[in-house]
Amino acid sequence: MKYSGQARLLVAVDCIIFGFDGDNFKILLIQRGFAPEKKKWSLMGGFIQPEESLEIAANRILKKLTGLEGVYMEQLQAFSNPDRDPVERTIAVAYFALIDIQKYQKQLSTDYHAEWFLLDKMPKLILDHNPMVEIAKNRLRYKAALHPLLFELLPEKFTIPQLQALYEGLYSTTFDKRNFSRKLLSTGLLIRQKEKDKENSRKGAFYFKLDKLKYSDNFDAFLKFIPNPDKFIS
Fold this sequence. Notes:
Order of helices and strands: EEEEHEEHEHEHHEEH
Low-confidence stretches: none
CATH class of the largest domain: Alpha Beta
Structural class: alpha+beta
């Protein structure tokens, strides 16, 4: 049985994959493998199969490209302009994911000519993918100002300068080192380690680990890492 007189629409999922390599905040893009706009830069996406939910489809698409499962992923919104796809009427539901780039190195598929780009040096994308990225960036900027969301991008051990570089990459700005460090340490989320990173500074910066129990308890708490987050939303 079907609803009579109703047009059939395609539904796709597009994944906006943000990553951090220890120095820079980046976005993962692929070269589209089919027409229209073949070989142009694109988000990783695909059509939802009849037996799939949106979440299952998004995780399948992410795993297909990165080989990763269980990473942080959040639904952004639907994009439904009737003219957004020149081939067929397609509604796209966008998700953004957060990945520690150093974890994916050996798993990233070579089938899609994927490449990491700095956020401010991203090429023009197909269809409405540029607005998708802009909306995802603004959503992430707002949420990361209030919650410890960006810790999802960090390796098990990290330094405060690394963490500051991560936040500065997302917000395209520079934060005062002392104020940033003081605010982070005041959350109680970080456990200082005995060893230091001596490669990137003369004195050496202490490594920290995330207190995972406190992280889970405080994930939805308003920690206000970044003052006035609205000014960073374009």
